[in-house]
Amino acid sequence: MYWYDGNFIEHETLQISINEPGLLYGATVFTTMRVYEQSLDHPLTHWQAHCDRLCQSIQAFNWQQPDWQRLKQGAELLLTHYPILRIAILPDGRELITGRNLPVDLLARQQQGITAWVAEDNLFRRDLAAHKTGNYLGSYLALQKAHQLSAKEAILLDSNGNWLETSTGNLWGWCNGCWYTPALSVGILPGIIRSQLLTWLDSQNISVQENIWTPDFVRSLEFIAYTNCVVEIVAITKFIKFQCDCNKSVSVTKIKYLKSYFMRRN
């Protein structure tokens, strides 16, 4: 079931024009939202932040704004069936909302960490990196390759080999008593959870910096993790094609600390 252009539809097919820009060029913007306690008003759902993300991209592309009240109506219908909603907006303002369940192994990922593949090939890039557009082919290909190598995530690099983000989220690291995350200026998505954690860490008087993740800097980190709205925060404890001495015991300790951000308001 899904919501499309003001209608709640209970089957798995969608009829669109063969000239639809979203089909031909990936001309959509989208956001993926985890709904807590089946409520758009729950503070961890970040409903307004997701709407703001969509609105900012729509304004940047000079597209038509959707009917925001209708979009919210569709989200409220689907959240009773799914904990994760993907909201996409087409250039003419039509909305498409689909739902899915949480990953079946999410708890294991959060408790044990994951393996990530470092995608060194220039093939794996995201166009218009500051926006979540329907053209996510680079990230999709990187994630599929990671799965082929028995990894759960892929780490995307720039042309100089600096680390940017994962195929689905933002990177975090810890060393010498400070948190680090790649700066927006390097060309990454300004993730909603990334923004919330930066604000929260600052409010707790915890040192946090945005910087450039060169390979040498990455090797200096004691702990690496990634965040997104679905998985919250997950440690990366093993890397394919990259030597890094991340301490697993440090990872367990630090993951519990950042996890407290998600636990404090449930």
Description:
With 266 residues, this protein is of the alpha+beta class. The chain has two domains: 2-100, Aminotransferase class 4, branched-chain amino acid transferase, N-terminal domain (D-amino Acid Aminotransferase, Chain A, domain 1, 2-Layer Sandwich); 106-263, D-amino Acid Aminotransferase, subunit A, domain 2 (D-amino Acid Aminotransferase, Chain A, domain 2), CATH 3.20.10.10. The chain contains eight helices and 13 strands. A hairpin with a 3-residue loop joins β12 and β13 (232-240). The longest helix has 16 residues, at 248-263. It is globular and about 50 Å long.
Descriptive labels:
single chain; 266 residues; alpha+beta; D-amino Acid Aminotransferase, Chain A, domain 1; D-amino Acid Aminotransferase, Chain A, domain 2; 8-stranded mixed β-sheet; 5-stranded antiparallel β-sheet; 8 helices; 32% helix
